[in-house]
Amino acid sequence: xxxxxxxxxxxxxxxxxxxxxxxxxxxxxxxxxxxxxxxxxxxxxxxxxxxxxxxxxxxxxxxxxxxxxxxxxxxxxxxxxxxxxxxxxxxxxxxxxxxxxxxxxxxxxxxxxxxxxxxxxxxxxxxxxxxxxxxxxxxxxxxxxxxxxxxxxxxxxxxxxxxxxxxxxxxxxxxxxxxxxxxxxxxxxxxxxxxxxxxxxxxxxxxxxxxxxxxxxxxxxxxxxxxxxxxxxxxxxxxxxxxxxxxxxxx
Length: 251
Description:
Elements (H helix, E strand, L loop, with lengths): L7 E5 L4 H12 L3 E6 L4 H12 L4 E5 L5 H15 L4 E4 L17 H29 L2 E6 L3 H4 L5 H21 L4 E8 L5 H4 L20 H11 L11 E4 L7
Parallel strand pairs: 1-2, 1-4, 2-3, 4-5, 5-6, 6-7
C-alpha cells in the first residue's frame, strides 16, 4: 500500500512547473488529486493525464485563489467529489513573468496582485478547507514559501515580502489549528530549474559554486519533501519552514 493511499490532496497552481511535480508525486504516493488553477491549458491537461496514469483520480477546478467565493466553491466541489479533504498544498503564486524592478518602480497594482495571490490566496484556500479537515480531526497544510525571504532578492521586493508573509501565516495557522490535529508547515525552495525561473534568469549560467551540493534544485527535490510532510511520520512537525536549496542558506 502507498504511504498516502486514498488520501485527497488539493494543489493550488498544480497544473504546471513545481505545482505539477507536487501533484504527480502526491498521486504516486497514493493520493487522489484536485488541481485548483486559473490556467486551463495544455500544461494542465498533461498533468492530469500523468496523474491518471498512476491509477489515481484527478479533477481540476478553475479557481482564482484570491477570490473568497471561488475558493469556498473549490473546496466544496472537492469535498462533494471525494467526501473528504486531507491535504492542501498552497502553491499558487504570482512569479511567472515578473520583471526585475527597483522597489520604487513597482506599481501599486502589481504589488497588490502579488500580495493578493501569494498571501491572501494562501489564507483563503486554508480557510476554505478548514471545516472539512476539522470535521475529520486531521489535516496537512503545506505552504510553498521561498528561500528569498531569508536571503533577500534584488528586483522582486513584493515577491520577497509575500513569501515572508506566507511564513508568518504558516506559524500562526500551526498554533491555531494544532488542537484539531492539523499540521501546517512551509517549504522554502531555493533557485529551481523551472519554466517560471527561466523567464527571469539564465539557468545555464547560474552560479552553483556557493551551493555545497553544486547543482540547481529541481521540482522533484521539493515535491519529495511535500510528500514526506503529509505522512504519519511527519505528524509531530508543525509550524516549521524547511529550506530546500542544497545548503546555500543555512540557519
